[in-house]
Amino acid sequence: TDAEVSTRKKTFAEVQTERLDQAERTVLIKCPSKINEKKLLQYLSSHGNVKSHFFFENCGISALIEFSEKSSIASLQDAVGIPSASEHHVVPFKSRLFTFTLKNPVSQHVEETPLHLSPQSHIPVKDLIEKLCLADSISSQMYLLLNEYQLTEENIRLRFLACSLVRDFARAYFPDSTVKPFGSSVNTFGKLGSDVDMFLDFRDTGKHATKMKKGPFEMEYQMKRLPSERLATQRILSVIGDCLDNFGPGCVNVQKILNARCPLVKFSHQPTGFQCDLSVSNSIATRSSELLYIYGCLDSRVRALVFTIRCWARVHGLTNSAPGTWITNFSLTMMVMFFLQRRSPPIIPTLDQLKELAGEKDKHIIGGYDCSFVSDLRKIKPTKNTETLDVLLCEFFEYFGNFDFRKNSINLRKGKEVNKPESSPLYIWNPFEQDLNISKNVNQPQLEKFIAVARESAWILQKEDKTQQMINKEPWGLADLLIPFGKSNSSKMKNRMKGIGSETIRSLLDSLKLNNANSQQKAVGK
């Protein structure tokens, strides 16, 4: 029942279904600059009940409008005209993106109540640091960072709408298809401003299975056959990509990257302001998204720690948005999960433990890999661990600053340090495709830089005199860690370096040089 669902944490599938349904009842309107909220809603209500709405800034003011009934959209579309082709000819594709202008522009004197605009990007790090200095503990600093960076309700709706608008194109060819977001848009670890990863799904949700059993015939569609699934994927994406490029309102910079390990179409979706990556359904990626969703929902410390570590890594150049030899955000997130599994008592369960809790419905075998784990959060016992984030942050840096990367690998299935199966500098087992290392791209200098910065950070947190630093108006705690080392105060840096062996300093300096050289080379391939 609905009441029962609202009192417990929803499953990943429930959230997805609900949001995709919500997106189907949603339109996006580019508004005139002097828009009167009341008048707009009054007009829209003539087409049906407006369930929710918000405004945001995107080259002018836009409004996202969610109707209670899908039929209201058709009613509105009937009233909307086609742009007059004076200087441009138009592609007459009728979408759910509209532009409203006032027939009789209001004179300057009218007192307007200012609109509330929902922010779609996070504050710059230097503004964040100022805010962090006002908090009263590292733990509250971390929650503050989480609140500034995490996706808002409005931003999530916009992401699902972007998928729903792409789906309208896919349905022209494949009426049963859906387009779903995966990765950071849905796994509870997305930050404002991140790309939207979406995939095309052709799977019939088992509706036909029961009907097919009836009658004396085995029946199937005649379909075009191709030598490989990969080729089918490439052809489908190629056509949908052309479609978006030629007919998609606000779809610009469409790039088809069909020879990648995972073929995709990249494009900018101007109406929502997102950079989008479209691929064809990848069940394992969905399972990874759901696994992280579960971990993110189990304990509030999980997300606070992940967001903090990612921000810290970005500031120190340990991660980079361009592909290369540095640690990816996904690998970093998995390292945080592993660390939380290793606490005593553990803060989150291992993947094997989640698999043991799986019911019949949770069984998923994908391409020979067992990807089963429990989806109902109520079946997972809450942790008895009461460590504060202050402790966990410092312990994270200690743990990985002293981890034996030469010998050991990181395995989230077992929640144990396991001997490395091969010699990559950093080995993190793919939780589902057991023979893959998700951090195969990381080279030795990047790993050494990570270790050095982690040690340095642990050292800063241990040596810190918070009260003194607050009196001196110096950044303290997390704020201190988000200032690139060596920039703050060189004498302070020299003092800190006393605690670090000369070998580490040498490797830190080498990797810094190397990193500069790397960032100057063009990063290629994903």
TrEMBL record:
Task: Give the record's GO CC terms.
Answer: mitochondrion
Which CDD domains does this chain map to?
A: NT_PAP_TUTase
Its required cofactor(s), as named, are:
Mg(2+); Mn(2+)
Alphabetized UniProt keyword annotations: Magnesium, Metal-binding, Transferase
Which positions fall inside the RL domain? 11-79
| InterPro entries in UniProt | MTPAP-like_central, NT_sf, PAP_assoc, RL
Protein's UniProt keywords contain Kinase: no
A single GO molecular-function term is: poly(A) RNA polymerase activity
Annotated GO biological processes are: RNA 3'-end processing
Q: Where is the Poly(A) RNA polymerase mitochondrial-like central palm domain?
A: 138-296
- In this protein, which residues make up the domain named PAP-associated? 391-426
Any keyword Magnesium? Answer: yes
Mind telling me which SUPFAM superfamilies this protein's record contains?
A: Nucleotidyltransferase (SSF81301), PAP/OAS1 substrate-binding domain (SSF81631)
- Pfam assignment, any one: RL
Which PANTHER family did the record assign?
POLY A POLYMERASE CID PAP -RELATED, POLY(A) RNA POLYMERASE, MITOCHONDRIAL
**This protein is called what?**
PAPD1 protein
Q: Which organism is it from?
A: Melanocharis versteri (Fan-tailed berrypecker)
Gene (name only): Mtpap
